[in-house]
Specification:
The protein is mainly beta and 127 residues long. Helix content is 0%, strand content 50%. It contains no helices and ten strands. Strand 6 and strand 7 form a beta hairpin.
């Protein structure tokens, strides 16, 4: 089992920044992928960004490219999502996800690729 604990959500004005963190613990492996997804009210959950523990690939959703940056600390089994230039449409519950094993390229954008999920953290951007 893998446990994921997210933190860093909150309320921010449009144009502001937030940094989300997700710490993994339990039966993690040295090779894994972690991703961020979000779900806005009345909408389906959508992919935001993903990162591998080994290779440098970091895909992003088009809606956040150039504004959000995903990074990781392998020693701490922690992934971060730095969110800059936030917009009201970024308002959502943000979820961290974990997939043990090898990087699966663009398939890391699919929810079904992840075996473990965090509880979610609310991000609210006011206009």
């Amino acid at each position: 089992q893998v446990q994921l604990v997210e933190s860093g959500g909150g309320l921010v004005q449009a144009g502001g920044s937030l940094r989300l963190s997700c710490a993994a613990s339990g039966r993690t492996s040295s090779s894994y992928a972690m991703g961020w997804f979000r779900q806005a009210p009345g909408k389906e959950r959508e992919f935001v960004a993903a990162i591998s523990s080994i290779i440098s690939s970091t895909p992003y959703a088009d809606s956040v490219k150039g504004r959000f940056t995903i990074s990781r600390d392998n020693a701490q089994k922690t992934v971060y999502l730095q969110m800059n230039s936030l917009k009201p449409e970024d308002t959502a519950v943000y979820y961290c996800a974990f997939r043990p094993g090898f990087w699966m390229g663009n398939r890391q954008k699919e929810e079904g690729m992840y075996a473990y999920w965090g509880q979610g953290t609310q991000v609210t951007v006011s206009s």
